[in-house]
## 1
Amino acid sequence: MARQINIEEDRDMALREGVSVLASGHPVAIPTETVYGLAADATNPVAIARIYETKGRPQFNPLICHMASLAMAEEHVTFDPLSRRLADAFWPGPLTLILPLKAESPIHSLATAGLDTAGVRIPEGFAAELINAFGKPLAAPSANSSGKISSTSAAHVEADLGDRIELILDGGASPVGVESTIVKIEADGTARLLRPGGIVAEDIERVIGVPLMRPEKASAAIEAPGMLASHYAPTAAVRLNAVSLEAGEALLRFGDADVSGQENAAVIIELSRSGDLVEAASRLFDAMKTADASGAHSIAITPIPHHGLGEAINDRLARAAAPRP
Ligand code: TXA
Ligand code: MG
């Protein structure tokens, strides 16, 4: 079991203890507005290696480097004008920008997987305070074992990684509920959406004034290795776009969808009765974990509209339903 500190109860102690464990070269589970992160000193290769070991990640994927401020980010990466406009519009918040690393940045190549770019974002609230107190960027993937569902509460982190980490900082339920949107502006000004997420693509397009390219699945896999097929996988099978239920399945329902056979569901979980995609995103991972915990052999999910946050929700669901290795 990991030690937990509730941030609302004692913010100063959470900051102090968080900084102390980070300084010792060990990862700490921290709340962010998207999902919980497993954070470590982005300049310390031993600390970063411990993230991979803790998650059981098979290969060294590049990690997102979290910054406290634009000033801190500018010490490590350079901004083209469109990326700068996106940073001004959406930071702090659930947007990650892929930016050229400065030669003098002490961010370790284990965090960037040897690329000459870094994924950078400024999170909201406590996470930014912790980074500020620590004084260095934090590399942080989602706080879950590799391939499993991301954690949106301290209890999720404890259940998945509690026997492998020292400290969980409990900031309550993650308000956004899906990971950050990842965008890369190419040298020629092409804007690429590498991962749909908490900032909806339409809002990004409005700010940059050009459409986001959604690259072919294959090249997306090379560009963002963490985007590979099976991911977010519960133990149960996952069945998408369900309009009827097979006996004993768990049901995740969006809106007031009337699903035939639902009276025989192992459990019915509402993603959002009113059909609100923001609410559905915030509940998605917890709903999948709850459905999985019911012991059902399969989780059926009703169709989710593809606009707004629906793009990120459908991306995560497609990966949860992908063939398992
Ligand atoms: O909301 C989030 O982004 C959460 C919270 C904790 O901040 N973090 C997160 O990290 O989702 P992770 O490690 O699970 O996902 C990082 C993604 C991967 O798909 C990785 O391939 C991509 O970011 N990435 C990181 N650096 C990159 C780079 N230099 N070029 C391309 N892709 C990069
Ligand atoms: Mg992840």
## 2
Amino acid sequence: MTVKDYFTSLAYAPAPESGSTAAAWLDAHKRKFDLFINGRWQAPKSGNYLTTTNPANTQKIAEVADANAADVDSAVKAARAAFASWSKLSGHARARYLYAIAREIQKHSRLFAVLESLDNGKSIRESRDIDIPLVARHFYHNAGWAQLMETELRDYQPVGVVGQVIPWNFPLLMLSWKIAPALAMGNTVVLKPAPHTPLTALLFAEICAEVVLPAGVVNIVTGGDEAGAAITSHPDFDKIAFTGSTGVGRIIRRVTAGTGKRLSLELGGKSPFIVFEDADLDSAVEGVVDAIWFNQGQVCCAGSRLLIQENIAPRFLAKLKRRMSTLRVGDSLDKTVDMGPVVAPVQYETIDRLVKLGLAEGAEIFQADTGLPTGGCYYPPTLLTNVQPSSTVVQEEIFGPVLVAMTFRTPAEAVELGNNTRFGLAASIWSENINLAMETARKIKAGSVWVNCTNLFDAASGFGGYRESGFGREGGKEGLYEYVRPASEARPRPELPPKDDAAYKAWGKAKPAIPLTPTPLPLEGEGLNGTTKKSPSLLVGEGASLPTLDRTAKLFIGGKQKRPDGAYSKSVMSHDGKHLLGVIADGNRKDIRDAVSAARSAENGWAYRTGHNRAQILYFIAENLSARAEEFARRIDSLTGGGLDSARREVELSIERLFIYAAYADKYGGTIQETELRGITVALTEPIGVVGLVCPDESPLLAMISLIAPAIGRGNSVVVVPSEKYPLVATDFYQVLETSDLPAGVVNIVTGDRDSLTKTLADHDDVDAIWYFGSALGSYFVENLSAANMKRTWVSYGIARDWSDPHHGAGEEFLRESTQVKNIWIPMGE
Ligand code: NAD
């Protein structure tokens, strides 16, 4: 052949990666693996083994133990025993272990890459150049955090023993995202890999033994979904960290509800890939290839919804189809392929079923004639057009090499379509106009936004979801907080009544309000609103007094005082039960719904104000509260009977809390993450949206303000259910809000039966987060019900806080609960 012939044919020569070292390693284990518990291989108590196969040829690779609940229990015990000494090691000592693991991974990187490709089907190019280097990077990066914990996270302690369950799409990478930060912060772990892809986790176990990691610090328990369930339901874990589908995440949220276990959930996605008319179209086409055909599209943050500006759509789609026809699909160990097989026949069937459903719903399909090998789980790169925003293939995660494409006309429509999903994991935005790209990045609801790039990950940047893509972050400093708790807080161990107890059935059912005082009150003395009542003989003739003007406290919704929907009222008595202090509105479900919709309407305007502006309003609230400080102190004293001095202190501390979060309103906006990107990765701390705040009875004013101030200071809109016992402090407080320039709907207050109002908030699909300071049973219900839309929860499990203590009633924890981190990646260079 002449050089000219080569140029015209440009055929690829075969470039197979050798699988011989991996085969030798598998053979050395007789292709049968036990569980790695307490630093040793242990046969599963069930005696059962699962088979793992190569999706490129569906041949069996090896057998791995199928753990049962008894095996999980042994692993938990080993991890618990190891925790005692591991958590006491110096940060430097833990850093040395993590560093040693990172070095071992680099030393054996090719073996890891080949095993990963054999087991998962991903191309060797990806496992070799992306997965394994990132794994090593996570251990190096977290070795650094272990070293720095004593200075950078001084006021925190490890969470304890952590159960970790991971999926099959990035087997070793997901392991590293979980194990590296957990160990760095002094925790010990039991990790279960996915049943399709256990092999690299087992090689990792050997590396732990190789670096003489103390026994029990890392336990690898292979098995199926039941083994996962045995982990998430085991009572002796202090935290569960899960990555996988939203459906399973929801089950886990319910299983762990009310247990006091910490939980982080990294779930599914349906991320938009937005191409504006001024984008560099050729780069954007390459971006699409990386977005949806990387790892066969089995990527939680895959750019699976292509949104193209209408006027460039025909040109862009033509370019994309041309590029699709050059993609090479083949054996995972062939170094020249772009795509390998999908992970297993069952995944192939799911993809195929969804594509057929799309066609039945009217989609048009394009699949390039790239040629597929026979005998494996190969699915061709696929493009679906003529789809609607409501089409199943547009809303559901397909988790395969299938792209759906739609058009938009204006940037506003792009944002609307981009956000038209229950997920919120990632987005990719393509435009040469920096203003447009950044404005869109800001408005898209997602944890990672890539500008003119896609699918970038790094240990220094947190990754995680908004909405039903889960909560918690992995990577970056923000990811470390998933593995620590404040040094002053013990692990909550709430005691719940048995499930058949009447309390379960009764919780959340509205109790009828007691509208009038049951026994006649003394006619002399303090009356309504602290006025003095006169005896009846004085009601005639000279000096007669008339009944006081009624001041029934109303609800505060959308900036207005509002009568309750149910038109019921409730009396509020003084602490000794002798005096009627006031009458409050008894709010119901409809009132909560109105309050949520008022908060939603206020959300964007408020969130987009500058921090300085929000600070000014918090200061103004403080100023107006200060002007009425004595009145509030008397009110608190008459309600609680705690004494006037203590009540005055409570008001002063409340004013100080407003100052604290006014100060933070422009000082918690985010950081620059030092990732490996040549460019800038910005971690923005964004508000969560609409937050329900259920306040405790203790320190009624201080606790309520300690919750409202950080939430609104960081740009959220809130629906407040104040203390049920002392609601008058809240209804007095809305008068302060009314005079403080706070926009309508930012704070809404609904008084009434706390449990039933809480239930409505927790059930509400348009509430993004709920903070509940109340009973253990209420905490259980809040966490359980919140699984429906995966709202973030912060609950107290019935443990009272000392709100006057700045370590408990204020600080970083409150700011973190008020925000979620969005990482925006902006490459630089020409
Ligand atoms: P999956 O939810 O079916 O399984 C994940 C893991 O959970 C497996 O180890 C499985 O054995 C275990 N499991 C299954 N049922 C369980 C139960 N009832 N209790 C406890 N554990 C249980 O998910 P998958 O199919 O392995 O992975 C694909 C999903 O993972 C996709 O939805 C993808 O978007 C998601 N994912 C998310 C991220 C992220 O960071 N957000 C990363 C990778 C994958």
## 3
Amino acid sequence: MAYKRTDGRKNDELRKPILAKVGIIPNADGSAMFQIGKTIAVAAVYGPKKMHPQHSQNPEKGTLRCTYNMNSFSVEDRIRPGPSRRSTEISKITEWALEPAVMLEKYPNQVVDVYINIIQADAGTRCAGINAAAMALAHAGIPMKDMVSSVAVGKMDKTLVLDLDKFEDSEFEDGEGSTDIPVSITHSGQITHIQLDGKIDSEQLKEVVEMAKKSCHEIYEIQKQALKDSINLGGKK
Ligand code: ADP
């Protein structure tokens, strides 16, 4: 029997609410929040500034340095604060997802720091973090070729569903179980990041990409509107 979603969503429906706000941290050069369902990410951008130590400088282009952190209070059982293997991996993935859209060649020997904090986690935090970070980079005035939007597609047993919640991501075990496939895509359709931690055939993977493209377009419109609103509200901060 095909998988039926416990929260009543259609298979290709994003969680609600989706909220995006730009310019939430006055001290940062750029900032944004992105909420989808019960997952909330906050991103702050500092820079570009000179890279220290000097041996880390790249004379060809600037460095995008992302730091992903899930706050201790973001899940029911408090998480041990500080970096973990998971947060290190997600920080790297976030850099890779965003880098193709950022014109780092304009900033040789410099670094752009992006700090992502997950203040509430209910699955899909890396995608929410990427969505918030892309807006914060644009808000900081870092030249970008394109916006980046991110969403996870899941395979529940054999059925594809969009934007997994915590139950779908971690607790569903029927049939082939749950496979989580986070995807990040530029507005022009370039995939900058895709991860796969289970099994899927190539036909279904094509469907995953189509589902992600369609919903990233929806997310892009929300990101764009939040950036426009920040200008209408009287400037950068
Ligand atoms: P993502 O948040 O990008 O989906 P994961 O698949 O690693 O990344 O995590 C899925 C969800 O599991 C998280 O969003 C969070 O709700 C929960 N989670 C992850 N790590 C922990 C942890 N150390 N303690 C409690 N819950 C966690």
